Amino acid sequence: MTLVNETAPIRLRDYRRPDWSVEAIELEIDLGIDSTEVTSRITLHGDPAKAEPLRLDGEELELLTISLDGRALNAEDYRYEKGVLEVSDAHGGSVLETRVRVQPAANTTLEGLYLSGSREHGFLLTQCEAEGFRHITFFPDRPDVLARFTVTLRADRERFPVLLAGGNPAGSGTLADGRHWAKFVDPHPKPCYLFALVAGRLENIQRDYLTADGREVKLVIWSEANVIDRCHYALDALERCMRWDEHKYGRNYDLDVFHVVATHDFNMGAMENKGLNIFNAKYLLADPDSSTDEEYRAVEAVVAHEYFHNWTGNRVTCRDWFQLSLKEGLTVFREQQFSADMNSLPLKRIEDVALLRRTQFPEDAGPLAHPVRPAEYREINNFYTATVYEKGSELVRMIAGRLGQEGFRRGMDLYFERHDGQAATIEHFLSALGDANRIDLTPYLAWYAQAGTPRLHAKGEYDSARREYTLTLSQQTRPTPGQPEKTPLPIPVKLSLFDRSGTMLPLHLQGDAQVDGTERVIVLDKPSQRFVFKHVSAPPVPSLLRGFSAPVVLECDYSPEELALLLTHDADGFNRWEAGQQLAMLAFDTSHDGNDSAACKAWCDALAALFTLQTIDDALLADLLTPPGEIEFADRQSEVDPAKIHAQRQSLQHRLAERIGVSDLLARYRLLSTDSHAQLEAASQAKRRLKRRVLELLVLLDADQAHELAAKQYDSASGMTDRLAALSVLVRTNATQASAALAHFRERYADNPLALDKWFTVQAQVPGDAALAIVQRLENDPAFTLKNPNRARSLFGAFASTNPSGFHRTDGAGYALIAERLAQLDALNPQIAARLATAFNGWQRLEPVRRSAARLALEGLAQREGLSPNLSEIVSNVLQ
Ligand code: PHE
Ligand code: ZN
């Protein structure tokens, strides 16, 4: 096998402050689709006596002219090779001017300056995080170099009527030959990864906004003309999150304009460029006819996420990319708080924890495991991971929980006060939070440095003579690549005790002054610790890790009855769900060959009772009725057989459906169907969520009847949520009505790429061996293209990452197909290829037949010539 990791990694411990910084940069950009010329004047800051020679990053730039302090440089004054421009004789105050040419239309990587859409109608835009700016001009492309940006754009007025860049507008005008110009000045020094420009034919909607501290701001959302009507929801969401940040964190917006632009061609969800956010259209456009309820919530969440970056990321940025979670984990946390406030706290928590378990836990348990703050990397784009984002957010949540609401706000205030305008580290963050509360938070740094999900073991013992309950907690983290030894972490465990009738008991923790209350947090910070509760009159049932107070795997020998008690009585919606998930796991582990275990029976009985009671919120009930996903079940096994897991999970659901019974399911389905208008209110959304779940259970019992209902629901649906739910039931259970519905959907949404993505995805998710042929047929659909990341993900991402029983065939054909497409995709867009390749994570734990097929496909891929550093890194790490 060829050695793929040839380059040396970049290490956190090698960090050095920059020798040269840039005070100001003036850009003049002459835009053209095939050729764009970028003139840059940077004013340098540094001391040549102490410094290394000036070195600037620049990738694949055609250097046209270069001068230093007004003097054109000769060949011996500079050197440009291997992505670095080295210039001799620069001194503090020197101005370096370069003129380069780049080729936007030829750029398929969607990094740097590129074209979105067609040559005739598309528009130009940039993506610079993490290291895209070096594809536009020469610059110290590192986040700890903050400069004031002045940008002048020039272009043909007819082809590019709209010219946008970050910062405040500072004039515009006409030039000769039908060209025009527009100038922007950003008063806030920023790292170059936050630079952005957009140019083309775009429409906008706008609104005036007055900040709490009295600034008049224009909020403007831009998109291509045919979708501008679908931007209103995002504009409302933007206003909501701006108000929320003022109220919750005292943070105001700081420019006169805030632009947001939608594009269909984007590698990630969205980007927080200063004053000019750029969004994947998937997270900006929303309308009832083509967006589901989940997608509405995602738009609100991503709009908020990017806006919140203005303070957590932009005003206070990262010293280096190892600190990525400083902005991402914190911003995800702020978004989660916001979304919970706008919608429902327990539902949001359930959604986020389920996401963590589905994406981050497997990452942390396999060859790609890395700390929230990695110690080294090769390709930074591969580190925009669930660990950095979702686990990073969980760490902030733990710390925020430790400080309490007011304490956390005090800490955040101090963090902004100390580090506004700076490039900070995770230590700075923890110090500010700790100092503001006179608490030493350094023990939490270990969470940032250590990979792997800790296992928290809990064992309770009741002493009836002494009326004492002793809870013994212990922790253990398995080795991860490069980290064989693990240290104990501080694990906050929020808990309550229930008596057998489901009532919470007052807590009297031994050796603790605080006597009152039925819920409290205890912190395990040693390998093992005992906690004694006094005056406990009968053996209690502990409700542990309430609200998911730490990102760990809880191991506790609950009996089925105990879990059923919590599922029925816990007042906290999240914990109720959690008890149900644990019980379903137990049922899964103990049910074999149609023999119902006690756990399976307890799970079905408890849920059937809750189903008939009708006192629970519809959306919560829908979540309770959903067992853990196939990926979560697989995560607990050592010889994974995805087909078997799929079948077992299906049979678990079948038991549940039987226990509730056809007539009750039907009656509830009919009741929920009376609310036929696609309204966004929580109650309507909740009904649709439950209706979908009921239909999914019904189809397990009486397929013909359920298919008829689904077909009818598809035809009469007034919004996408109901339409897609019906389509998905028809397609996944192979209904005779499926093909007509699919044909109808294909035609109806032929001109709506985001809706069409769902059409691809629904089919790529058909379980079992049937999926492969479907995927192969779909890649020949004229609407399919590897060039568009959303479309590539809608088919291959859905198949490889969300359809385990379809992808993991015993004959290895799923692996072979994806390996082949990865190589093709890599030639176009390495970032997207590398991300898709993570679908192979976990292959070592497959049963032997699939395991050797996966190895074969991966090794074949690793041996190919000319793989990008991005894809090589993932493939070689996964193979370890
Ligand atoms: N910083 C973006 C976000 O999380 C994500 C992103 C990373 C977008 C890299 C593009 C490129 O909000
Ligand atoms: Zn972010």
TrEMBL record:
Protein keywords: Aminopeptidase, Hydrolase, Metal-binding, Metalloprotease, Protease, Transferase, Zinc
Pfam families: DUF3458 (PF11940), DUF3458_C (PF17432), Peptidase_M1 (PF01433), Peptidase_M1_N (PF17900)
EC number: 3.4.11.2
Domain Peptidase M1 alanyl aminopeptidase Ig-like fold: 452-556
Occurrences of domain Peptidase M1 membrane alanine aminopeptidase (ranges): 233-440
CDD domains: M1_APN (cd09600)
An MF annotation (GO) of this entry: transferase activity
Catalytic activity from the UniProt record: Release of an N-terminal amino acid, Xaa-|-Yaa- from a peptide, amide or arylamide. Xaa is preferably Ala, but may be most amino acids including Pro (slow action). When a terminal hydrophobic residue is followed by a prolyl residue, the two may be released as an intact Xaa-Pro dipeptide
Top-tier EC class: hydrolase
UniProt key word Hydrolase: yes
NCBIfam families: pepN_proteo (TIGR02414)
Membership in a protein family: Belongs to the peptidase M1 family.
Protein name per UniProt: Aminopeptidase N
Organism the protein comes from: Dyella acidisoli
Gene expressing this chain: pepN_2
